[in-house]
Amino acid sequence: MKLIFLIITIIFSFQTFAQDAVIAVGQAEQDKDKIVIDDPELVDLSGDQKRLGAELIDLLRNDFIFYKHKFNPVDYLDKGKNSYSSPDIEKWASGGVTYFISSKIEDGTGSGIEAHFKVWSILTKKEIFSGKFKLKTENLRAVGHQVADALYRSITGKASIFNSKIFFVSDRTSYRETMKELYIMDFDGRRVDKLTNFNSVVLSPSISPDNSKMMFSLIAQKKEYANGRTRLIKNIDLKLLDLRSKKVSTVSDRPGINSGAIFGADGQTIYLTLSFSGNADVYEMAIGSTRMRKITSHYSDDVDPSITRDGSLMTFLSNRPGRAHIYTMNPADTEKDVKRISFVGQFNATPRFSPDGKEIVFTSWVDNGFDLYRIGADGNNLVRLTKGFGSNEEPAFSPDGEFIIFASKKMISRSKAVQDIYIMNREGEILGQLTQNFGHCFSPQWTNLP
Q: What CATH number should be reported for the domain holding residue 291?
């Protein structure tokens, strides 16, 4: 019964009652940089090219709004009146602007455009970026996000989330039986594509460090021969999808659970939950090899690992205290330095490290519903991220550590619920809903930074 309870707790979602208000944390006043993305100068453009240029500028402004905890967008001062060719730095400085982004859009090939951008640091009165990009209607969003990332890098020296994508699972193809397939979308919820067609249930996706492969579990039907008779049984197998070739292979199909798998830093070592011995434990194994190493070894069930990029610390879920709570350990040896770090709620689920390995975001059953929490990897500095926002599960940090995506379920009647993917900043401020009218959505995961 313990194992069955944990499978249900970790893999499948609970239904809870929605509430109304959002209570975010970390809302202290911050000194934000004021940024202007000005209207562009337009040079000999057709009507379609002008519309494409306007859509590009709107995309850039919308992208930067996600970082509103860092930047305070202000009114566009010059409205494209020679702000690219003849910048008025003193005017921007008097308006309290920190960074000014100007652009010039010219005729490209055919219906395309060539967009030139400059970024000015108003405090130093220096141009800190200059670049040009060619784009057409069909690649507006892809190239536009690349432009936004280049502008963001010039200001911060860091990569943004703009080029990242999000994988998630949805049951939108279900008819008589529940079917869950794997999908991919841009970080802002646009350009959704379907990746699998198993007509089964996909669970727990995980991306490789180089973004080339995806692991996930699949509820597979198999034939079992016993006492001269054949019967169909279901098993949770671990699969590997090559995102370039689209080929799917089986990594592990041992009897029982083959799930919760994550990649190590080398992209070849994986950590996963196996229950073939009758008890669920975390193992290390290499893709394409039968060799494996047991990391946890306890009479309780240990599942759902997450590991830091340097491989020095692992977090996992265990019902050692009687109900599922979060532990950390050194995965270099079996049961090395095991430490319980969560004591909130009746039970917890899906612990996930931040990119720098300093924090863990997780789900906890509190006040008759699931809510999200963030805690230091040492077990200190517990922060509640959601309250009164439905039932919130399966959080994951963005590759830059600035944001968290999660699945949120809301009851809209006694018998009907909706479940979608949302994005918040790391302080718990809800920024938006990424999926809508796309079935029940689960298990969001970011791609990694290039």
A: 2.120.10.30
- Model's pTM, two decimal places? 0.90
Q: Looking at the structure, do residues 252 and 105 belong to the same domain, yes or no?
A: no
Closest CA to 173 of 420, 442, 443, 440: 440
Number of domains in the chain: 2
Give percent of the chain with pLDDT exceeding 90. Answer: 78
Over 90: is that where the pLDDT of 8 sits?
no
Same domain, 266 and 351: yes
Residue 313 structure tokens: 């610390």
The domain boundary residue, chosen from 125, 156, 187: 156
Residues 232 and 290 in one domain: yes
Residue with tokens 């796309």: 438
Tens-digit pLDDT profile for residues 194-220: 999 999 999 999 999 999 999 999 998
Cα separations in angstroms, 87 against 41, 90, 102, 120, 226: 12, 9, 8, 9, 81
**CA atoms in the 13 A half-sphere facing the CB of 346:** 7
Phi and psi angles of residue 425, each rounded to the nearest 5 degrees, phi first: -80, 170
Final residue of a structural domain among 137, 156, 175: 156
In a domain, residue 341? The reply is yes
Range of the domain at 278: 2-22+165-446
Question: Are 274 and 393 contained in the same domain?
Answer: yes
Task: Record the tokens describing residue 169, joined without a space.
Answer: 């699972």
The residue type at 73: P
